[in-house]
Design brief:
two-stranded antiparallel ribbon, 200 residues, 2 strands
């Protein structure tokens, strides 16, 4: 709520602006979480990388998260804005890395390039995880698991070790489910107007 005081002669007028827009965090968390689960079902070896994952990465993990980040900007939430817009474009970039060479727009990336891509996002996620220690316990778990996921993916791709990548897949499913838990918990608590789900 923003309060402004305007003086007109001796008369003072008070204008109150109340933000009644919805909480965008559940959308961002679910877009991140559900897309992470689907990609890591592939990493765990359950099914091949295909159009379903690409579509999730572009439309839900990508575009929906960017929209949530813009809505967080409207809420004056710098952390939410940075997180959702960044990870939204992470998903769009990841799909681009895989799909663009197939359409002849670029050459296929080398293993070292993929590792560098994952490493810079791991560093970003680590700093974001440190910041969550001033936020909720639920977000600490989500970002902590995300950092671990990136570390496992870096190790698995660097060594070319399928077992490590499958372990990363299982850990990534847990990471995605934790984000879904926090997002749906926020919605449930808001709708029921009481603390039904503990999100920390």
């Amino acid at each position: 709520m923003l309060v402004k005081t305007m003086e007109s002669g001796e008369v003072k007028k008070e204008i109150k602006i109340i933000d009644t827009t919805a909480n965008p965090a559940p959308l961002g968390l679910l877009a991140f979480g559900m897309t992470t689960v689907m990609l890591n079902l592939h990493n765990a070896g359950i099914f091949a990388l295909g159009s379903m994952i690409f579509a999730m990465g572009i439309f839900y993990g990508g575009i929906a998260q960017v929209i949530a980040g813009i809505m967080e900007w409207r809420k004056n939430n710098t952390f939410g804005t940075l997180a959702f817009i960044s990870y939204g474009f992470f998903w769009l970039s990841l799909v681009g890395l895989i799909v663009m060479p197939k359409f002849g727009f670029a050459t296929s990336f080398a293993k070292e390039e993929l590792v560098a891509f994952l490493a810079i996002w791991c560093l970003f996620s680590f700093v974001m995880w440190i910041i969550t220690f001033r936020l909720s316990r639920g977000l600490q778990v989500v970002f902590g698991l995300l950092v671990l996921l990136f570390l496992l993916l870096i190790a698995g791709n660097s060594l070319g070790n399928i077992t490590i990548l499958q372990i990363a897949g299982v850990e990534g499913i847990i990471c995605g489910l934790s984000a879904m838990y926090v997002g749906l918990g926020q919605v449930m608590n808001e709708v029921y107007k009481e603390k039904i789900i503990n999100v920390g």
